[in-house]
Amino acid sequence: MTSVTFLLRVAAALMLVGSAYQTFNLGNLTGFVPLTNQFIYGAIAVLLPFAFLLWPRWRLLDLPLAALAFAAGCYFAFVSERIVMEGWEYGAPGLAQTMALLLWALTLEAGRRIGGTAMILVVAPLSLYPLVADRLPAIFNGFSMPLRDTVPCSMQ
């Protein structure tokens, strides 16, 4: 548990420095101005794995799930400029759709571990709302989207 504690302290320090850098727009002084989504995906890469390390559920899968969460967050942080420039919320490439689906599932599982079953029973159906939006009563009616477009759009 001490290695997880050490990693948690490093992650907290990274997030503190990164948040100050982003909040106070220090990129103007250093020449590196990260996009907002790049910072958010970086934060996901740094923090989401701890949901699997600090709230273990399946001992054999916790470390691989944490690694997948880190990899998915890093992938989106790395391609964040392409996400914005190419409008991936309207037509993401196949790999991005797969990674978004993976990150969506990992985020739901992390939420279930931390918030419990009640939270997942609320969040999961709401995250799938775009699939059935066109079939709901007038006050809830909206444009429907297929799953391949819903997940990448929600991960933007």
**Outline type:** globular
Q: Number of DSSP strands?
A: 0
The number of helices is 11
Uncertain runs: none
What count of structural domains?
1
Summarize the helix and strand pattern as letters. HHHHHHHHHHH
Instruction: Output mean pLDDT.
Output: 92
By secondary-structure content and strand pairing, the structural class works out as: mainly alpha
User: Terminal Cα separation, in Å?
Assistant: 33 Å
Strand coverage percent:
under 5%
Helix content: over 70%
Main sheet properties = none
Structure description:
With 156 residues, this protein is mostly helical. It has one domain. The protein is built from eleven helices and no strands. It is globular and about 50 Å long. 21% of the residues are buried. The mean pLDDT is 92. Keywords: Membrane, Transmembrane, Transmembrane helix.
In short:
The chain is mainly α and 156 residues long. The chain contains 11 helices and no strands.
Topology diagram in text:
Layout: H1 2-23, H2 27-30, H3 36-47, H4 49-54, H5 59-78, H6 80-86, H7 88-91, H8 94-115, H9 117-127, H10 129-132, H11 147-154
